[in-house]
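Lecture 7, part 2: worked example. A protein chain together with zinc ion.
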Amino acid sequence: MTEAGAGLNRRTFLEGVLAATALAAVPRALRAMPNNISPSTALQRLMEGNARYVRNQIDVKDFSAGRAARAQAQYPIAAILSCADSRVAPEFIFDRDPGELFVCRVAGNYMNVDILASLEYGVEVLGAPLIMVLGHTNCGAVKAVLQYEKDRKPLPGHLQMLLDAVSPGVVEAMRQGPTDQLDHAIEANVRHNAQRIRQAHPVIAKAVVEKRLDVVSAVYELATGEVRLLK
Ligand SMILES: [Zn+2]
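Predicted complex, written out as structure tokens:
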């Protein structure tokens, strides 16, 4: 092996060790990582990727090219909490490569302790500067909550747990009773969970206060492919 090759191997190994073990202890300014970017830059990259996806002009992907580097470490630019709906595929929607998005998915895109633990890992250990809660139009989980609030008909198996988890974000929207109730409830559910994540102590809330993390709300439009940021 050449001297240069040995140096490269040593560096790759050290990067892997850092990512796997002691990354949280390394001062952020010293991390020369691809995701050492501001929350606004991360959001801009997502939205630019979405614009390419909407135009059907996604970047050419060479999945084998980065495989060796990815085997050593991951540097996601954002953590996404999305619905499990098969039509919502974050890597496609934002035109990102493997290793760029840390995706947590559950029907109804709500936060529970398991999801929160994953998001904390994405932020604190992997250094993601952005969390996006991503709902979508025509969401079956939110629809089911609206239906349940009307007829109180229990659902089989564990589905009732899903309803109970999504309900808090939807009930407020129902009280207001707008004509486009489903869309309104979908947005309310996203905002509700983004707010819960933003205030989640000790890890996420601290990162938000220190401005190294932002938590944003968005809705994916099934019909157009567009991701709409919520104010
Ligand atoms: Zn859904």
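DSSP finds nine helices and five strands in the chain. The beta strands are 78-82, 101-105, 130-136, 214-220, 227-230. Keep this in mind for problem set question 3.
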